[in-house]
Amino acid sequence: xxxxxxxxxxxxxxxxxxxxxxxxxxxxxxxxxxxxxxxxxxxxxxxxxxxxxxxxxxxxxxxxxxxxxxxxxxxxxxxxxxxxxxxxxxxxxxxxxxxxxxxxxxxxxxxxxxxxxxxxxxxxxxxxxxxxxxxxxxxxxxxxxxxxxxxxxxxxxxxxxxxxxxxxxxxxxxxxxxxxxxxxxxxxxxxxxxxxxxxxxxxxxxxxxxxxxxxxxxxxxxxxxxxxxxxxxxxxxxxxxxxxxxxxxxxxxxxxxxxxxxxxxxxxxxxxxxxxxxxxxxxxxxxxxxxxxxxxxxxxxxxxxxxxxxxxxxxx
Amino acid sequence: xxxxxxxxxxxxxxxxxxxxxxxxxxxxxxxxxxxxxxxxxxxxxxxxxxxxxxxxxxxxxxxxxxxxxxxxxxxxxxxxxxxxxxxxxxxxxxxxxxxxxxxxxxxxxxxxxxxxxxxxxxxxxxxxxxxxxxxxxxxxxxxxxxxxxxxxxxxxxxxxxxxxxxxxxxxxxxxxxxxxxxxxxxxxxxxxxxxxxxxxxxxxxxxxxxxxxxxxxxxxxxxxxxxxxxxxxxxxxxxxxxxxxxxxxxxxxxxxxxxxxxxxxxxxxxxxxxxxxxxxx
Lengths: 316, 281
Fold this sequence. Notes:
The complex is a heterodimer of chains A (316) and B (281). Chain A is flat. In chain A, a hairpin with a 5-residue loop joins strand 1 (66-68) and strand 2. Chain A has one domain (84-315): MetI-like (MetI-like fold, Orthogonal Bundle). Chain A is 72% helix and 2% strand. In chain A, helix 6 (89-120) packs parallel to helix 11, helix 6 (89-120) packs antiparallel against helix 13 (225-253) and helix 15 packs antiparallel against helix 16 (288-296). A two-stranded antiparallel ribbon of chain A has the order 1-2. Chain A has helices spanning 2-8, 16-20, 27-31, 34-63, 80-86, 89-120, 127-134, 136-139, 142-152, 159-166, 180-207, 212-220, 225-253, 257-262, 274-284, 288-296, 299-315; strands at residues 66-68, 74-76. The mean pLDDT of chain B is 88. The relative contact order of chain B is 0.13. Chain B has 14 helices and two strands, in the order ααααααααααααββαα. In chain B, strand 1 (238-239) and strand 2 form a beta hairpin. Chain B is mostly helical and 281 residues long. A two-stranded antiparallel ribbon of chain B has the order 1-2.
C-alpha cells in the first residue's frame, strides 16, 4: 500500500530554501506560507511559556544548588541541599507518605470511578442531572470543600463523630486529624471524594463507545454479565482507564492544597507530602534553595510517568 | 438493553449504587448548608441532632458579608478568573491552531512540548515563581496571579483545542484558500467559528481551574483586600486555632455557588472538555 502512495505523490520539489527566498515575494504572500504563518502565531504564546514556565523551572534547578535564605546572600553549595535532604528523616517520611497517598487514593478512585461509570451507563430518568450532581465534588474549589471536610472530621462536634456518638457506637469519637494513621486515612478519603467523579465521568465516556452489538452477540452465545464485563467491556476500557490513571497519579502525587488545608502536614509531620514539605521548607523556614531541591526531587517520578505515557501512546 | 430487567436487578444494579454515590458526593454540601444556618448556641450544643436545623438563622451570612472582605474576595476571584481565562484562551488558540492544522518543521516536537508543560505541576515551580514575582515587584497585586494562572491554563487550553481543531476537515480551509481567501481569513471566518463548542469547553474548564487555584494566591496575595475566596476563607476565617465554623461554612457555600452555577449552565461543555482533555490525549 505504502509503495503506491509514494509513487503517486509528485516527486519534483523545489528546495525549501529556494522557495522561501524567491525574489519579489510580497509580505502578504509570505504570510501564506504555512511555516511563516505558524511561527507568527506561535511566537507570542511560546514567549509567554518560556518566560513564565521555562525560566522558573530552570531557575528552580539553579536555586537548588544554593543555600539561600529569603532575603540573604546566596552561597553555592553544589549538591549540598540534596545531601541535606538525603539525611533528613522528615523528607523520607514525606516521600513515603506521598507514595502511600498516591497509590491508595488512585486505587480507590479507579475502582469507585469504574463502579460509578457502570451504574451511570444505564438508562434512567434524570440521568443528566445525576451526572451533573455527581461531578460537583470535582468542580467546587478544593480548598472550600476541604474546609468542610475539616469540619466533618472535627473530633468534638464534627459530623462523623456526632453520628458515631448518636448511634451509640462510641462514647468519644476518634481524633481523625490528630492521630497519625487516621490523618493519613483522612487525606486519602478526601482526595478520593474529590477525584472519584473525574474517573467516573471519563470512564463513562469510554463505556459509551463500547458497541452494543458486541454485548448482544456475546449474550446470544451464552456469556453471563461477568464474562461480558471481563472479556468485552474491560479490554475496551483499558486505554481510557490507563490515561485517566496516569493523569490522576500526576495530580495526586503533586497534591498540595488538600493536605495544606486539612492537616498542614501534621500531626508531627505525619501527613506531610513532598509538596507540603517543600512549601514548609521554603516558605516557613525561608530556605529557598532547600525547598527548591525538595520540589525537584519529585522530577524523576514525573519523568518516569511521562515516559510510561509516551511509550503507551506510541504503542497505539 | 440486553436481558430481562427485573426490579431486583434495577435496585441492586442501579438505584442502590447511585444512591450511595450521591450521598457520598453530596453530604459535605448538605453539612455546609446545615452548619451555616445554625446559631452558635445550636451548633455547639452536644445534645442537638447534627443534621437538623431547629432555629434557622442567617447570622453567619450577615457577619460574613459585613465583618469580612468576603464580597471583595468574590469580586477578585471573578476578575482574576475572567482575565486569565480570556488570555489563556487566546494564547491557547494561537498555539493549538498551527500545531493541529499546519505542516512545518518542528510541529511534532512542539506538540509534545506543550503536552509536557500541561503535566508539569505547580509544585515544581512555586519556589522560583515566588522569587520571580518578587523581583518583578508584583507581590500583593492581582497582576501576580493574573500572570501566573495562565502558566497552568495555556497548556491545558492548547492541548484541548489541538484535539478539537483536528476534528475540523482540512478541506474546508483548502476550499476557502482556493476561493481566494488568505490564511488569516480562512482561519477567522471559516475554521474558528466552527470551533465555538471547543472554546466554550476550554473556557469553562479554565474558569473553574482558576477559581480553584490556591498555591499562587496563597504565595502572592497577603493583603486582605486583594485576596481570592480560597485564601481569604482559609486565611481570615480561621484565626489562629479558633475555627468559626458557621462563618466558614457560609463562606465555603457562598464561594462555591458561582462556580456551581456557571458549571450548571455549561455541564455539557464541561464534560466534553474533561473527557477530551484526558481521554483524547
